[in-house]
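Hi D.,

Good news: the full-assembly prediction came through. Inputs first.
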Amino acid sequence: MEPFELTITEACAQMEEGNLTAIVLTESCLARIEEVEKDVHAFITIDRDGALQQAEKADKKRKEGVAGKLCGIPLSIKDLLATKGLKTTCGSRILENYIPPYDATVVSKVRDEGAVILGKATMDEFAMGSTSETCAFGVPRNPWKKGYVAGGSSGGSAAAVASYECFASLGSDTGGSIRQPASLCGIVGMKPTYGRVSRYGLTAFASSLDQVGPLCRTVADCALMMKVISGFDPLDSTSVKHAVPDYSSFLTHGLAGVRIGVPREYFTAGLDPEVESIVRNSIAVLKERGAEIIEVTLPHTEYCVAVYYLIAPSEASSNLARYDGVHYGYRDMGADTLLDMYKGTRSKGFGPEVKRRILIGTYALSSGYYDAYYKKASQVRTLIRNDFQKALESCDVIVSPVTPTPAWRMGENTDDPLSVYLSDILTLSANLAGVPGMSVPGGFTEAGLPIGVQFQGRHFQEEMLLKVGFNLEQGLQLGKRVLDL
Amino acid sequence: MKISRKQVEHVAHLARLTLTEEELERMTGQLDNILSYIDKLDELDTSRITPTSHVFSVCNAFRSDTVQESLPRNEALRNAPKQDGEMFQVPRII
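Then the structure:
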């Protein structure tokens, strides 16, 4: 077994016993990257020298007896989290050469625990997309099947973790961007409660929906990563002062006393039969482990795509106004006037999906349309939030599919944005309601594509999702399978 | 039609984007399609519903007014497309 195949928990234990060093671990991941990256394309930037320096430092710390929770563990970071001195492009031409002068809070936190940052993961431009195909610097592919998408927008993060190029990754989730690629790539991904994790240094897409979270290979690794990155940050005024539990301590066998709700609106026409059967099988496993299964209802589910595709672009149109070519990033040097400079910079710097969302958002917020669009969507958002509150009064966790279908072929639907938006229907609500959501592998289709199971829970009860996810993982014992690499 | 080509052109100007003829044509069709779908929200009577702009009611986040280190000027200017060592430079405004 190669060192890169270990879990974080296993690698930490081996390093602590003196059987493994951070240098060996990092070199193992770098060799793996060398081997599969040309095929997977999960990275925009690989920081080989920086990684080896960090590994050396980690080994030194461990010798001194001050090893952090992630000491010597190689990670990747989605390319929209600021990394000091390391290029951060957001998958966009407009930030092609941007080098942040500071670290995002979550990046500081993993560094403080001794993590080794290998590089920056590919993603949809500004996290706008569901397949990572809107990335300006190459598209990651699904490690389980050639020619299939890794999902998005954290597609590079998911592909890198699934193909063993790194142990875990930090991604972001505005409408499913961690859970969906985790599901399509057969790994564990968590979108924490809004406010659980600092957004400082996360490039803003839709500020009321964005949340940073981990992508990992096991639930135990996810619990560990959550412990490291969670907590209030004075630099993010929307982060919440709420105690961070020791998530790992909740990973116990058995689900006696846990009520799991199955929302009937998530199992409707359009749901792929293989996806449904894998999720139903997972529910049976949870029942065997002692959970009580009940039916719940989230009646406004059918409206969430319309709500999301007004609110997210509206916030994005405002957040992306900052890319004007003045302080950083690309500038159209040929323009003679300020207005032409703005227009030239933005028109040449942004790709089509980003432009489309800026236009929708600008239109929805423009004079005369605000009430009909943005206000209306914000009102329906209240109804969606109330649905969750009510459903979660009768159960502890809501179980469902993550996506209506398995991963699809690259290049499909690229001319029909609405059909791609509709594929997000099962993940958007968690962001609109602010609740935590998680994807845990549930099985594989006949064609060999992984399918995830989604858990959503009450605000600040990530530990309940982790507990249920752990029991699914342990109950299923999917084991190791051979990737299509 | 939910949105006309002329409206898209106007919105693009507000967003400081220039669209080519081809982009304008394609975007108008796609935006029209998306906005027509969004009309689905009209099925719901929301006249008595308070809008949610944020999932938690955020109060003012105050901090004590103490002097903290700020980004040094050379650092702040490092990523600028055009600067003279002291200032960001832009095309003539007036």
